[in-house]
Amino acid sequence: LQAAALLSPVAAPALDTARPDVRAFMDDLVSKDGFEQAYVRGVFGGVESKQGILDAMSRPAEKVKPWFEYRAIFLTPRRISAGVDFYRAHEARLREISASTGIPAEIITAILGVETFYGTRTGSFRAVDALSTLAFDYPPRSDFFRSELRHLFLLAREEQLDIGTLTGSYAGAMGPPQFIPSSYRAYAVDGSGDGRRDLLKNWDDIVASIANYFARHNWQPGQPVATRAEFARDAIRPTGPTELVMKDTVGSLARQGVQFTTDLPATAPALLVTLKGEDGDEYWVGFQNYYTITRYNRSTMYALAVFELSEAIAAGIRTPMAGAASE
User: Fold this and answer.
1) What's the average model confidence in pLDDT over 240-265?
2) Cα–Cα distances in Å, from 290 out to 177, 180, 231, 270, 303?
3) Predicted confidence band at 10 (pLDDT cuts at 50, 70, 90)?
4) Which of 106, 115, 148, 308 is catalytic?
5) Is 96 a catalytic site residue?
6) Rounded CA gap, 173 and 30, in Å?
7) Most buried pick, 134, 172, 275, 298, via CB within 10 A?
8) Which DSSP string corresponds to 262-289?
9) Which one, of 210, 200, 204, lies nearest residue 165 by Cα?
10) Residue 272 β-bridge partners
11) Which of 81, 4, 40 is CA-nearest to residue 313?
């Protein structure tokens, strides 16, 4: 009996709906957003606050791993091969969307590869549990997640979704593209023409919505993403983490002794990126399109992983790979 008790999962505590902050939020959903009180009470009556979500927030890979370890997660033969397979399975639609938006098909594919291994790992947390846990039990970003929780209610109403069945990441991101509720509402599009925006199962909607997100965040069609860089021998090398701010240009970085190759004009915005490689610091110069990728996930390593995976997928499409390797 004792062993059985040790193996039994511990039930997550129900969110205390009598708490003043929770009660005020629920009241706002009714008074400001027009939800039925019984509906709101019903949803929150089943919400659980999960310690696992709070634990995951404290150790995302972008913050705890150096670049060379982070890169090794995503630049694997299996993930590249699966990306080539995904591209071929959806090639006609990807080409159409790329032609109409200017977003490369391999970038759309790589986003799906990094986010959810092409839709196979979309997360198992109930979105309402994840967002409620973070909204009320994670003070560092409670305002942000309360806003996202409200967006989840509005999204479920607009798209006629059952809020209790929506699942995703520990941060409330949903579906193969991992859109948080506010992004879903703002950037999802009906790519299939069926009158709905389904980012959970409809691949036409999913790839079109990723392209729309990038287009709305100032992707520059035909321009480069990033390139490796070195420093002139007498140049002063940066210290500390990279700031995600486009405060430099191609010309200003060159004047600082950063050596790289690009066809962009000297006035083009640019960003020097410093990452921990296996053999020391790695330097990259990111351009506007690199910065645009960071609008999807505000991480220098994430953006570079997407870029490098997209390059590997594009190479795999040009040169078919022989079978899939193990990850």
Assistant:
1) 93
2) 18, 21, 20, 9, 6
3) low
4) 115
5) no
6) 24
7) 172
8) -SS-TTSEEEEEEEEETTEEEEEEE-HH
9) 200
10) 285
11) 81
Give exposure, 202-227, as e/b (b: 16+ Cβ within 10 Å).
Answer: bbbbbbbbbbbbbbebebbeeebbbb
Strand ranges inside the chain, DSSP E = 125-126, 167-168, 226-231, 248-249, 258-259, 269-277, 280-286
Q: pTM for this structure?
A: 0.91
Provide the CA 223 distance to its chain's centre, in angstroms.
Answer: 22
Q: Is the pLDDT at 11 greater than 80, yes or no?
A: no
- Rg, the chain, Cα only: 22
| Encoded tokens for 176 | 């193969």
Which two tokens mark 159? 């798209």
pLDDT in tens, 77-111: 999 999 999 999 999 999 999 999 999 999 999 99
Tell me the residue length of the chain.
327
